[in-house]
Predict the 3D structure of the following.
Amino acid sequence: MKKEEEFVEKEKKERKYILKLYVTGQTANSLRAISNLKKLLAEKLYGVYELQIIDVLKHPQLAEDEKILATPLLARALPLPMKRIIGDLSNKEKVLLGLDIV
Amino acid sequence: MATTENVSLVKKIGTGIEGFGVISQGGLPQGRTTLLSGTSGSGKTIFAIEFLWRGIKEFDENGVFVTFEETPQDICKNVKSLGWDIRALEKEGRLAFVDASPSPEEKYETGPFDFEALRARILYAIKKVGARRVSIDSITALFPQYSDIGMIRRELFKIAASLKNTGVTSLISSERLQEYGDIARFGVEEFVSDNVIVLRNILGRERRRRTMEVLKYRGTTHQKGEYPFTITSTGVKVLPLSGLELIQRSSTRRIPSGNTDLDKMCGGGFFRDSIILVSGPTGTGKTLMSTMFVEAGCQNGERCILFAHEESRDQLIRNGTSWGVDLKKWEEKGLLKIVCRYPESMGPEDHLLFTKKEMARFNPNRIVIDSLSAMERVLPLDSFREFVISLTSYTKSKEIAGIFTSTTKTLLGGESITEAHISTLTDAIIILRYVEMHGEIRRGLTVIKLRGSWHDKEIREFVVDNQGMHIEEPFRGVEGIMTGMARSVTQLEEEELKKLTK
C-alpha cells in the first residue's frame, strides 16, 4: 500500500501545469483574478507551474485565436485535457475543481 | 396645411437584398443597430451573411461577422451553394469572422466576469478590415452557456453601444419561440430596440410560407405589415407586393382576341394591356379561348407565353390541332413558349418568382395562365390574392395582354373563389356557361365586364368545331342561365315583357 501512495505523490510532483490567464487591462475583475490566482498557486502548485498573463486588449488576435469570450479566463493548457475557468477566481473550491487539483 | 413628407434625419444604407429596399424604404438605418428576430429556421443567418456579402460586392463596404451559433467553417460551407465565396473575401481582408461559437470544453464559473474580451475582439476585427457593416448571429445562443442572464444582457448592451460609437451599421439576430409573441427570447430587444425586423416561417395549408416584417424603425419610415420572401439559389428575395403603386399607363390600342365575333362583342377587341378573366365550368372552352388568343398573337408576330397548370404540352398541342390551331408551328418559330408545371411542385413564392423569371426571359406580348384556379388550390387565400396582384401589376407595367382562366366549382352556374377574389383586379370578365335547353346541353358566352369600353351584354350561344369557336345568336326564350337554373320563358311572356319595357 505504501508503494502506491508514494507513486501518487511522485506523480503529483512531476506533474507540470501550464496556465494562461486572460485579462482585460486593469479592470477590478482582472486585478482580483491575478491576485487570487497567485495566492492559490503559491499554496497548491508551488514550483510545478508556468503562468502566462495575457492582456486581451493588447493582444486581441490571441484572444481571437483562442476564442476567448469571457474574461477573466484561466486556461489550463497542460496537463491535458484543456480546461477553462472563467470569473475572478474568488471561489477557491471551484477553481481547484476546475484545475483538477485535489 | 403644409405637410413634411419623408423628412428623416436617419439615413439608410442599401443592402442589395432584392425587395428589402422597398419594404424598408431604403435599407437599414445607417450607423445603427437593427434587431433581426425570428424562429429557428426562419432565415436569420442567411439574411445576416447576405447583408455583408452584398455590402462588400455591391457597396464596397467591408464587414465583420460575429457568430455565436455555427462555426465560420460551417457558414462558409453552407453559403457556398449560393455562389458566395466567403473564404476569398477573408483572404482579401474584406471580411473578418469573430468566432464566438460554443467551445466543447467544460466551463467553471468562479466569480464575476464580463465579455470585455469579446468586445475587444469585435472592435479589433472592425479595425482590421475597416468594416462598415457588422452582423451578429445569433446572440440567443449565448444565454444558455452562462448562469447570469442579467450580466449577459448588460454586456451585450455594452457591445451594442460600442458598435454605435464606431459608426458601423449592424444587424443583431436573435431567436424567438413563437411566430407571433414576444419579439425575442431573454428580453434582448431591451437593448437593441431602435429597429426591429421580424422573419417568420408560417405553416399554412401544409406549406411553409416565409414573411418579413419591418416592425419598427425609430425616427424613420418603412412599409408596414408582413411581406412574403423566399430563399432562392441567389439569396433572399422579398416580394414587396402591396408596396406596388398603381401607376400603370393605360393603352387604347385594341388587339384581336382570336375570334372575330368575340372582338365584335368587345367593341373591337381587347385592350393591349388588359387582363381578361375567363371563367366557367370545366369543358366549356376556356383552354380553347386561351389557344385562340395565343394564335391571334402569334399571327400578329407577337410573342406569347402559355403557363399550363393542368395539361401537358402534348395535350395542349393535340387540343389545338382539333380546333385547327398549330401551336407547334409557332413554337418552332420562337413566338410561343409553353410552360407546363403543376402548381403543387413548388411553394407559392417560388412559383411567383418562377413565373416572373420565365416571363422576363421570354419577354412576351401576351400571356395565358390556364388556370388560375389551379394556383388557388395550393395557395392560402391571401397569398393567392397577392400572387394575382403581383402578376397583374407586372403584366401591366410591361403592357402585356393576358388571359387568366378560372374554373367554377359547379357545372351549371355558380361562382368560383377565383372570381370572387380577383374579379376587381381584372379589366374584363368573360363568362362561359352550360345551358340546358330542351333536354340538350348547349354552351353560352357573355362579356360581363370590359373596362373602358362598350360591350355586348347578351348571352350568346357558341359552338365549337374543327375551325374553333363560333359565336351565334343570343339565347331567346330562356332565362336564369347565369345562375345555372335556366328555364324557358314562353313566347307570349316574352312579348308581354317587351311591351312592358316599351
